[in-house]
Structure formats: C-alpha cells, structure tokens
Amino acid sequence: MNQFQYARPTKQKAAVELLAKDPNAMFIAGGTNLIDLMKRNIVAPQKLVDINRLPLREIEKENGGVRIGALALNSVVAEDKLILEKFPLLSQALNAGASAQLRNMATVGGNMMQRTRCYYFYDTALPCNKREPGSGCGALEGFNRMHAIFGFSDKCIAVHPSDMSVALTALDATVLVTGPKGDRTIPFVDFHRLPGEHPEIDTNLQKGELILAVDLPESPFTKNVHYLKVRERASYAFALVSVAAALDIDGSTIKDARLAMGGVAHKPWRLSDAEKALVGKPVSEETFRQVAELAMQGAKAFEHNVYKLKLAPNTIVQALKTAAGIV
Amino acid sequence: MEYKKPCKMPENKTETHNDSRRTFLKQSSLLTALALTPAGVVEAAKLDEKIAEKFEKVPLTLEINGVKKKLSVEPRTTLLDLLREQLNLTGTKKGCDYGQCGACTVHVDGMRVNSCLTFAVMQEGRKITTIEGLADGDKLHPMQTAFIKHDGFQCGYCTPGQIMSAVACIREGHANSEAEIREYMSGNICRCGAYPNIVDAIVEVKNGGQKV
To answer: Pick the residue with more confidence: B88 or B56?
Structure first.
C-alpha cells in the first residue's frame, strides 16, 4: 500500500477544506471497501481525511420522515426502532448485506459510495475501463456471470453491489450533501449513474462533496414490504439479483407500490412502470407476473448471465408475493 | 451509536503528519554532508532514515485488553498489523486480510469488527478487546470452554475470530435460534467445516445463562 497523509478533522467545514486542497485526497469513513481497494493498489490516495469524528451519526424524525446521518453504522440503522417501525424495508436490505462485523463498521454514506465487485475491476492485470479508463472492458466478452442486464454501455457492464441503496431507491430517499459550493440535495434515484462513456464515475457527487445525511420521506410502506436477495450462498455474498418490494394494500387492492432491483445494473434499478401498473390491481400472483414481465422489457443478457432474464422476474414475483403475504 | 470520547487533537495538528519528509531529508542530508567525512555521511544517512521514520508516524492512544497504550504508528498500519506485529498479540489471526474470512475479528468499544479493514490511527481513544483479553486470568471465558467441549474447531486458525464473533453474537441478542446464529456468524469462515459444533457451543453458552 502507498503511504498517505492522515487527517482527522472534527468539523464538517475543516473536512471539506482539507479535501478541496488536495486533488489526490479522499474521505474515509468505515473503510471496509476503501482499505480493501488500497491494499490491492486499485486506488492510491495521497491523503486520507478521516471523517469518523464528525457529528453525523444521528437517526432522527424529520417532517414525518426520518433523517439518517451519513456516518450512522449499517448495523445501528438496521436495528433502530424508528427505522424498524417506519421503514422495515431498509432494515431488511441492510441485514441482507455483508456480515455482522462489516455492518458494525460500514456507514450509510460509505455503503452508497462502495465500488463494483466486478472481477475485472479488482484484477489489476486485466483491462477495466472503470479502474483504468481506455483500457477496455474485460467482462464484455469475458466471464460475465454477475453482470448487468439493464443500462450498461459498451464501456462497462458492471453492477452496483449495495443492498441498502436498492431499498433507499425504492423508498424515494434524498441525499443531503455539502461541498465547496455549499449544500444541495440529490434524489437517491439520481445519486448513482449509468456507465455511458465514463464508467470510472460511479455517482453524481461532485469533486470535494461530502454526504451529510439521507432523508426518507413519510411513507405508507410500513407493513407489506420485502427485500429478497438471491445469491450463491445463504448469507454473506453479493446479490445475483435482489428486489425491494413495498405495497400499500387496501383490502385486496393495491393502492400504491414501490419496486427496485439490485444486481442488474450500474445503479439501483427503479421499476417505475411496474409500480404504476400495480396501482388499482388486485393482489394476486397473476398481477405480479404481469408487472414482472413489464419490468423486464429492454433487458439484455451476455454470454454467462442469461439466467438473470428468468431469475429477475421470478425474484420480483416472489418478493411481491411475500410482501403481500401470499404464501 | 455514540462514541464516548471525541478526538481532542488540536486543530493545527489534525492536518498532516508526513508531508515534508522529502524536504526534510534533503535539507538534513545536505547539512550533515557538509559537516562530515564520507564515512560520516553514511552514518548520517542512517540517522536521517531514523528521524524520517519518526516523522511519518502518528501518536496513538488505545486501551488494549484493559491496558492503556501510548503508541506510534504509520497511518497505513491496519489495526490487525498493529496487534500482531507491534504488540505481539498474535492470537488475532490474519486469514484473507480483505474482510472476507473473519479470522481477524476483535471488539472495538464492545462491537465486533474486522481488524484487517481499519487503520489503527482511526481507532484513537477506543477500547480494543482481543482473544487474549477474553479469559479472566487462568479462568477461560464460557465461550472458550464451550468451544473445547463441543470440538468447535479442527485446525484452530479461525477459532479466535469465531470466539470473538460468538461472544458478540450473544451480547447483541442474535443467538435466539440455530438459524439466527448461523446468519449472524456468517462473517466467520471455517475451512475445516466445524460449523455444527460451533453452533452447538454458542447454543450451550446462550442457554447456560452465564454472563458473557
């Protein structure tokens, strides 16, 4: 690992200024992904600004919803009373990710900022446009079992690995950030970006910006929710496909719905058309099959991930059935 | 979650710790080279390295297994490497070194973490408990006794991490069924496959009602 300077500011303003001064500086919070990447020489910051002493750990009520500080630990958020009561879908998604130890280290902001788990990104001997722009995409015609079926480009077919972000996308969260130009709010659905011509850029966060909090607006989705993650072992593995499903049910009719998928694109994949199609329909497996088909329009597989074209709609149906309580 | 003590480093010291090594080396080598004979220059260069090393290190105070330690570490030293290489606490194991196996599990302020994925300097002021700090003198911790009784290991390499994780699993309240134990112990890999016995050990300690 390269040597780096280390700074530990206690004030938000100082943290932003420290980062702005140095083009090769990075923030570090939990460190569970960044230190991993530094050990493999995939990233080599010259300066680390440790933000763990900034007062950004609170989880509090805000305008009927909840504001979660960027440094709140994944394990703390998952078991927070307010989150369990108002946003159980988020709690389920967090507990589906990583291990108990990692959830004790990883923060909400860091979880959003984690890099892809594409094998080509991690192997410095192989080409990867995300790691080294212009070097090519090894996965495109290589081993692409884990890869995208939506929103990819010819430069990158990697997927975003976060479970938490799939739930936050479905729940209409917003992200509060600060930076050299002041504070601003980014809708969660626009926080991550598609690879296009620049797969080296994962998010729409601008240089030098610091995530302060995630805001969850008041939501009726407190009961009929389910986060279903399909992976290669029962626990502690990244998703092949995951679905965050939330239903607001009146009797046997769907009043409103939220739906997003993970493991299928460069960003959490919100299924807006499927959500709209669910409204007013009866709660039934047939309804769920129809919207799953709609959700899959435009999907395209590569050599080794054709299975996702079948797995993804099946996961949508199963997640919706569990959310609705249909056994 | 609140950490007990906010860092109290003065503002002007928070900024950098090794930014002028090169300048420092250049200047000091030049001065000593002028003052000394060629043989002396070699000695002076050695001295420079020693001084430079001091320059790059960051002071760090940790409480490890109940003992307060004042240390000096390079920022890139992981908590795991500090424990094993500098403090000779080799009970905590380095398995994968990438947060995938759990062999390096320790408690920081009572929470289980992977010590390979955090820099030691980030833990300033925290209380660290390693496997060496679990027993009460010669009296083993109930989880250690249960692992022996149930053969919760074969080669033993993952065992310190398994035990630290198992203790935390019960303290957190995540040991209420075998299924829950398996889920909340999934961050600790055992290549020998002692999982059923590990689960038995945890169930026994949980049901035994002893203080963990």
So the answer is: B88
CB B134 within 8 A of CB B143: yes
Determine contact: B190 vs chain A, CB below 8 A.
Answer: no
Give the ipTM. 0.97
Please tell me the predicted confidence (pLDDT) of residue B44.
73
Q: Which residue of B has its CA nearest to A58?
A: B1
- CA of B67: how far to CAs of A95, B109, B111, B126, B129, in Å? 34, 14, 18, 11, 10
Q: Would you say residue B81 has pLDDT above 80?
A: yes
CA distance B36 to chain A (A): 31
pTM of the model: 0.91
Q: Is B71 in the A-facing interface, judged by CB distances under 8 Å?
A: no
Domains and CATH numbers, chain A: 5-50 (3.30.43.10), 224-324 (3.30.390.50)
Q: pLDDT digit string (tens) for A146-178?
A: 999 999 999 999 999 999 999 999 999 999 999
User: Per the CB < 8 Å rule, is A35 touching B184?
Assistant: no
Measured distance CA(A35)–CA(A217) in Å, rounded: 33
Q: Which two tokens stand for residue B113?
A: 């973490």
- pLDDT at residue A191 tops 50: yes
Is B182 an interface residue toward A (CB < 8 Å)? Answer: yes
B12 lies within 8 A of chain A by CB: no
Contact A105, B118 (CB under 8 A): yes
**Residues of chain B positioned with their CB less than 8 A from the CB of A52:** 122
